[in-house]
Structures are given as structure tokens and as C-alpha cells.
Write a structure and sequence with these properties.
magnesium; 271 residues; single chain; mainly alpha; 0% strand; globular
């Protein structure tokens, strides 16, 4: 990918509007080369994270929310759902319904297209939302906003990893515009971008992990990149065995799981 494409503001806006409910250009047309903007996934995550951070600080001005981190956590999750339109949660539900149905490839893909929710979908949604609220509440208790801001970034970084050297499970599907479209340049640029954000977050807040010095604390947090890469590999490996490729639902599921694993890892480090 050329540098000019990495700085394509028009494509960033299209990616932002595709992944969220944020509307900037009303007359924006569908870009058939939208997949070339996969490098903007973590940046879209940063936009979402900054909005969550802003909402966090606004809520903290209200005594009722300042004294109730659990309610604040619920509201932050609600804001994220509104921003994304629940797109990735829908992917999570469909993926768990299909992949864990233990059916044939065609049957799994059919289940994932079904708009009805099964037991696996319901359980996965409930557990993820409850865990996310509890983790966020623990950060709120410590007045730590940076994990909340970075959560959507790491989730969408995992989504990007799932599009690197992968193939679609369906001939036609919404996710095909992204699946397999991430090239090496986009991967490197995105990884560096996310890593720099983590370094900046710890540098600005002076967060210390286990009472260790700043450099070791930064290294420990940067390990989240490695964990995300391992998680992406495991998802690819498991899904390929089931249906031989990826779908848009699986990308959405990966984003949600990526967010959850990141905040769970940070919770372990600072909890």
C-alpha cells in the first residue's frame, strides 16, 4: 500500500461511517475498494475510545455517577453500543450460535445468517456485557481512563489482524470487502500506531504496574499486542477448521472478544 492511500481522509471517513453510526458525509457512496482502508480500523477505535473517555469525565462531574462506578460502567457500554449500532455484538451472537452448533459448514453458515438468537448467542452476549461492565467499573474505581480509551483500539486491531492473509467462507458476504485485504504495510503501520498509543497512555498517566518502573510497565502493557496476535491466530485456526474461512460476523465477534481480552489483561496487571 502506498503512503498516499494511508493518508486518504475520504477512505477514513467511509471506514468510520461503515463501522459506526457516526455520520459525517450524508451523500457518501459505497466505496468498492473500502477494504484498502483496513489500516484505519484502530484509528476508528481511537475515535470511539476518545468519545467514551469524554463521556466518562462528564459522568464523573455528577456525584451520583462519581459514587457508583457500576452504573457508570453500564452507561459507557451503552454509549459504545449506540456508537456502533450493536454491529459487533450482532457478529458475536451469530458467530457463537453458528460455530458452536457443531453442524456442517453449510449449516453453520446458514445459522449465522439467521436473525433469530439461540442459546449460545444469548449466553455469549450476557457474559461479555457483564464482564465488560465489571472490568470497566474496576478501572473507574481507580480513576483510570486510559484502558477505557484503548479498549476499542485493541478490539479493532484484532479485527484488522483477522483480515491479514485470510479468505472468506462465503462467495458473497459483507465481510468480504475486508477479509484478506490487509497487506503487510497496513499491518506494520497499525501495529506501530497501537503500540505508540499504549506508550503514550502510560507516559501521560504515569501508570505503574506492580510498582515497577515506567519502562517495565510499558513493556508489560505492550505485551497486549502479542496477546492480541495470538488470539487472532487461534480464532483463524478454529474457524478455518469449522467453515474454511471468515465472515463479517466473525470479524465483528473478533472485535468484541479483542476488547474483552485487552481489558481483562489490563485488569490483571492493575487490579
Amino acid at each position: 500500500m502506498k503512503i498516499r492511500e494511508l493518508l486518504d481522509l475520504e477512505r477514513f471517513i467511509n471506514i468510520l461511517q461503515f463501522l459506526t453510526r457516526i455520520s459525517i458525509k450524508k451523500d457518501s457512496k459505497f466505496d468498492p475498494d473500502l477494504g484498502k482502508g483496513i489500516v484505519f480500523f484502530p484509528l476508528v477505535g481511537l475515535v470511539i475510545g476518545l468519545i467514551l473517555g469524554l463521556v466518562y469525565y462528564i459522568l464523573r462531574l455528577v456525584p451520583a455517577f462519581y459514587n457508583n462506578s457500576l452504573v457508570t460502567g453500564v452507561l459507557l457500554v451503552l454509549v459504545e453500543v449506540v456508537l456502533t449500532g450493536g454491529l459487533h455484538l450482532d457478529g458475536l451472537a451469530d458467530t457463537f450460535d453458528g460455530i458452536f452448533s457443531y453442524r456442517s459448514k453449510d449449516q453453520i453458515l446458514e445459522i449465522m445468517k439467521d436473525s433469530r438468537m439461540g442459546t449460545n448467542a444469548s449466553i455469549s452476549l450476557i457474559l461479555l456485557i457483564v464482564l465488560k461492565v465489571c472490568m470497566l467499573a474496576s478501572f473507574i474505581d481507580k480513576d483510570m481512563v486510559w484502558p477505557i480509551v484503548l479498549m476499542p483500539v485493541l478490539g479493532r486491531f484484532l479485527g484488522l489482524l483477522l483480515t491479514y492473509r485470510t479468505r472468506p467462507a462465503r462467495e458473497n458476504g459483507m465481510g468480504n470487502v475486508f477479509i484478506g485485504k490487509c497487506d503487510r504495510t497496513s499491518l506494520i503501520v497499525s501495529t506501530v500506531f497501537v503500540g505508540l498509543l499504549e506508550i503514550l497512555a502510560l507516559g501521560l498517566t504515569g501508570t505503574s504496574i506492580f510498582g515497577l518502573n515506567q519502562m517495565i510497565s510499558i513493556i508489560l502493557v505492550l505485551l497486549s499486542l502479542f496477546i492480541t496476535c495470538i488470539l487472532a491466530y487461534l480464532i483463524k485456526h478454529g474457524v478455518y477448521k469449522k467453515i474454511g474461512g471468515l465472515t463479517g460476523d466473525i470479524l465483528g465477534c473478533g472485535i468484541e472478544v479483542g476488547e474483552m481480552i485487552f481489558i481483562a489483561y489490563i485488569f490483571i496487571l492493575v487490579g
